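User: C-alpha cells in, sequence out, please.
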C-alpha cells in the first residue's frame, strides 16, 4: 500500500494497533489489509483473512471502527471482508493433493470418544464460516460418515478411473461406505486397507475446476496401528487435532495418538474434549460423568491448545444418526456455536503454519551445452 495520503497513513497506523482475536497478530504486519482509501469522509478498508470467520466479521468491523474513532475527518467506516486461505506445507516428502490446499486429520487413540461426530461437525462449521470443505472417511473397517451426512448409493466415475465425491450439506465426502453394501464387512489385512485409503484419497476428484478445497478433513480410524502410520506417512497432512474424553483410559490412548503425529512431524493444532459435562434435562444439574478437565490437562502437558470442551448432549447423537449433524439441524444452537468456535480457532492457528510456495516456483529446464 504505497502513496497513502496523510489521513490514510493515520488509518494504517491505527489498524496496526488492532489485534486479531484469534491469531494475536495485527492485520497490517500480517499483510491481511489489502487496501486503504479515503473518499468523501468514508474510510474504505479491504481485509482478506487467512481463515474462515464470516460470523465474526461484524464484531471485527466494530474493533476497526473503535480504533478509527479518534481520527479527524472520518465520518464513516466501510470494511470489505473476504477469505483467502493459502496452501500450507504438508508432511515432508509428500506431493500435495490435487484439488486440495490443506489436509487436516481428526484422530483419537481409541474408539467411542465421538471423533467422527466431531470431524463432521467441524467440517460443516468450516464451511458455514465460508471455506470450501471436503470430508474423507478414512475408517475403512467402520465407515460412519455416509450415515452422518445422509448419503447413499455409489458415487459417479466420469472416466471410469476417478471418483467424484458426492456433495451433502455443502461439503464433499468420500468413504468406503459408499462403495460397499451397508451390511458387508470389510475383511482386509492392513496393507489392503492402506491401499484402499490411498485410492480414496488420490483418485477422488476433490474441489471444482479452478476452485480447490480449502480444507480436506480426514476422519481417521481409531487407534495407532499400521494403517494409521501409513496414512500419516503417505498423506500430505497439513495438521491434526486429537479428540478425547476426560476419562483416564481415553486420555492414555489419546496421548499415544498425539505422540504418533509428533514422530511423523505433523503439527497438532489442539485437543477437543468430548463428553466433558452432562447437564440433566430435568433439573439442570451438571455432572462430570467421565471425569473433569482431562482434555485441558493433556493439552497443557503437550503445550497445545484446548480447542473446546463439548457437553454430553443427546441432540448431538440424534442429529448425527439422522443424517443431519448439529451444524445442519440446529445451526443457531449453543452446541453449534461451540463447534464454530473450535473451527475458527483451528483454522486461525493453521493459517500461521509455514506456507507452501512450490506452486509459485518457476519451472527449471536443463539443456545440454552447445
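Assistant: Sequence out:
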Amino acid at each position: 500500500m504505497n502513496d497513502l495520503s496523510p489521513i490514510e497513513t493515520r488509518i494504517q497506523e491505527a489498524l496496526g494497533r488492532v489485534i486479531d482475536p484469534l491469531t494475536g497478530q495485527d492485520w497490517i504486519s500480517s499483510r491481511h489489509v489489502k487496501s486503504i482509501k479515503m473518499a468523501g469522509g468514508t474510510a474504505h478498508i479491504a481485509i482478506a483473512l487467512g481463515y474462515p470467520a464470516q460470523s465474526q466479521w461484524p464484531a471485527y468491523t466494530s474493533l476497526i471502527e473503535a480504533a478509527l474513532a479518534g481520527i479527524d475527518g472520518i465520518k464513516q467506516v466501510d470494511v470489505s471482508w473476504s477469505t483467502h486461505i493459502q496452501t500450507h506445507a504438508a508432511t515432508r516428502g509428500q506431493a500435495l493433493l490435487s484439488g486440495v490446499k490443506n489436509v487436516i486429520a481428526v484422530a483419537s487413540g481409541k474408539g467411542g470418544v465421538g471423533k467422527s461426530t466431531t470431524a463432521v461437525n467441524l467440517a460443516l462449521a468450516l464451511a458455514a464460516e465460508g471455506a470450501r470443505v471436503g470430508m474423507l472417511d478414512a475408517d475403512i473397517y467402520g465407515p460412519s460418515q455416509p450415515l452422518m451426512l445422509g448419503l447413499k448409493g455409489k458415487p459417479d466415475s466420469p472416466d471410469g478411473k476417478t471418483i467424484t465425491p458426492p456433495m451433502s450439506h455443502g461439503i464433499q465426502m468420500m468413504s468406503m461406505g459408499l462403495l460397499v453394501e451397508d451390511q458387508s464387512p470389510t475383511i482386509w489385512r492392513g496393507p489392503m486397507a492402506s491401499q484402499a485409503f490411498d485410492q480414496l484419497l488420490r483418485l477422488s476428484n476433490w474441489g471444482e475446476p479452478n476452485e480447490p478445497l480449502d480444507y480436506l478433513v480426514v476422519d481417521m480410524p481409531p487407534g495407532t496401528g499400521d494403517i494409521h502410520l501409513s496414512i500419516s506417512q503417505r498423506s500430505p497432512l497439513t495438521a491434526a487435532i486429537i479428540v478425547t474424553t476426560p476419562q483416564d483410559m481415553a486420555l492414555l490412548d489419546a496421548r499415544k495418538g498425539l505422540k504418533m503425529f509428533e514422530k511423523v512431524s505433523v503439527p497438532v493444532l489442539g485437543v477437543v474434549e468430548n463428553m466433558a459435562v452432562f447437564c440433566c434435562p430435568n433439573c439442570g444439574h451438571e455432572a462430570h460423568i467421565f471425569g473433569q478437565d482431562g482434555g485441558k490437562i493433556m493439552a497443557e502437558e503437550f503445550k497445545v491448545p484446548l480447542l473446546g470442551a463439548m457437553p454430553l448432549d443427546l441432540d448431538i447423537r440424534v442429529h448425527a444418526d439422522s443424517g443431519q449433524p448439529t451444524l445442519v439441524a440446529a445451526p443457531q444452537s449453543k452446541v453449534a456455536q461451540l463447534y464454530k468456535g473450535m473451527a475458527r480457532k483451528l483454522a486461525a492457528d493453521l493459517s500461521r503454519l509455514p506456507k507452501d510456495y512450490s506452486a509459485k516456483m518457476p519451472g527449471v529446464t536443463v539443456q545440454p551445452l552447445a
